[in-house]
Every structure is written in structure tokens, then in C-alpha cells.
Amino acid sequence: MKTSLFRNKLGFTLVEVLASITILGIIGITVGSVLANNAGITKKAGDSLSALQIANGMLRAYQKKDFTEVQQLEGTRQADIQSVLGLDTSDGISQYNAYVTVSEPTDSRLSGRLLLVKVKVETDGNPRPVEVEGYVKK
């Protein structure tokens, strides 16, 4: 004896249609909010990666400079990203601010032979700055 999958052979009832629309709506809202959240996270990650690349580039630029030239810059100051990296245009970097700190190393045995350079890059859209540090040799 065959049993029919649906008891009512005339079609779906109004309750079944409304239930399916409600379930699809809930699924759609959930998927939409997940996608929107992921888009925000992806943008922040992209900004952080760009800030890290800028910071690494600036640190390398300072490491290529002469020791006495870097020594004269001792202290913390805001750096012009475009001029330090030698960029032709400031397109794409206007949302970044870089700060460079040049100081003597904490180990007194290294004093006069090395300078500690810390580069901090802040992004308008990301509250956590990216920081890198390295040394300039005499």
C-alpha cells in the first residue's frame, strides 16, 4: 500500500507557505549579517596589513641611512610616509600616520654602536596601531 508524501493533493496550505517564508527569512538575515561582519573584518585586516608594509618599508629606509644622520633624529616625531618611502604620490596613504622614535638601546654596552628605531603606523579605521622596531648599525 502506497502512502502519499503529502496528505493534501491540492497544494500547500497557507500555514506551510508562511512557515517556509519565515524560515527562509531567518536564514537570509543570518547569512546577510555574517557576510556584513566578514566584510568589516576583511577591511580592518587589509588596513593592518598595509600599515605593516608601510612600517616595514620605513624601518628599512631608516636602516639604510647613515648612523650619524639617524642619530640626529633622536626622539619621537611624526614622519612623512611619502618622502621617507620615496613615493611619487600620496594616493592610498592619506589614511595612515607614521611616528618614528629613535633612541639609544637599553643595553649600555651597545650604546654608540646601535640605535633603536621604532616605527608606529596608525590607521584611521583601526584603533590598534602597527609597531615594528629594529636597529641602525654604526
From TrEMBL:
<keyword id="KW-0812">Transmembrane</keyword>
<keyword id="KW-1133">Transmembrane helix</keyword>
<keyword id="KW-0178">Competence</keyword>
<keyword id="KW-0472">Membrane</keyword>
<dbReference type="GO" id="GO:0009986">
    <property type="term" value="C:cell surface"/>
</dbReference>
<dbReference type="InterPro" id="IPR012902">
    <property type="entry name" value="N_methyl_site"/>
</dbReference>
<dbReference type="Pfam" id="PF07963">
    <property type="entry name" value="N_methyl"/>
</dbReference>
<protein>
    <recommendedName>
        <fullName>Prepilin-type N-terminal cleavage/methylation domain-containing protein</fullName>
    </recommendedName>
</protein>
<dbReference type="GO" id="GO:0030420">
    <property type="term" value="P:establishment of competence for transformation"/>
</dbReference>
<feature type="transmembrane region" description="Helical">
    <location>
        <begin position="12"/>
        <end position="35"/>
    </location>
</feature>
